[in-house]
Design goal:
mainly alpha, single chain, 0% strand, rod-shaped, 166 residues
Length: 166
């Protein structure tokens, strides 16, 4: 491509014909370069169909940008309008409080059942075996309910502090 093509006011920049006529560098003065138009025309069937229907590449790109902006706004609106007690609850403001507000309707283990098993002296591991769950599920339910754990008798006791006795 020579300088006459870049500076010419009559050259069809931003079109398929412009690329085929020799404007195939990054210095195209059009809003959408001839190289980009050619790449999209060859590789994007929807773009080709719109160009063949008479839309200019600049109109197509502007329409795509508007659709992307609208989709991003719709996603953001959907995220902000999340239903339930946990809406807008972050880790810092306490999931346990949100779970308590939610009630037993969606709990993995009903709170009264969990409380009875803990009062019976069962550990998280034993509760999991009894209910057919994983220990981590029981631990999570217990923590969300705000209950303390029963010490696991299968674990080694904490080592005694060693120090000089007088």
């Amino acid at each position: 491509m020579n300088a006459d093509v870049i500076t010419s006011n009559t050259y069809p920049h931003g079109t398929i014909e412009g690329f085929q006529g020799g404007c195939n560098t990054a210095h195209c003065p059009a809003e959408v370069s001839c190289r980009t138009v050619h790449t999209r025309y060859v590789g994007d069937w929807a773009f080709r169909r719109q160009v063949n229907a008479g839309m200019t590449p600049a109109e197509i790109v502007a329409t795509e940008e508007e659709q992307a902006r609208e989709a991003a706004e719709a996603d953001l609106t959907a995220k902000r309008a999340r239903p339930g007690a946990r809406a807008r609850a972050s880790h810092e403001d306490g999931r346990a409080a949100a779970n308590k507000a939610r009630g037993d309707g969606l709990a993995l283990i009903p709170r009264h059942t969990l409380r009875e098993l803990l009062n019976a002296g069962l550990t998280d591991r034993e509760i999991a075996e009894k209910l057919g769950l994983h220990r981590r599920q029981v631990t999570g339910s217990r923590r969300n309910a705000g209950y303390e754990r029963n010490p696991d008798r299968n674990r080694r006791p904490a080592p005694a502090a060693t120090g000089a006795s007088s």
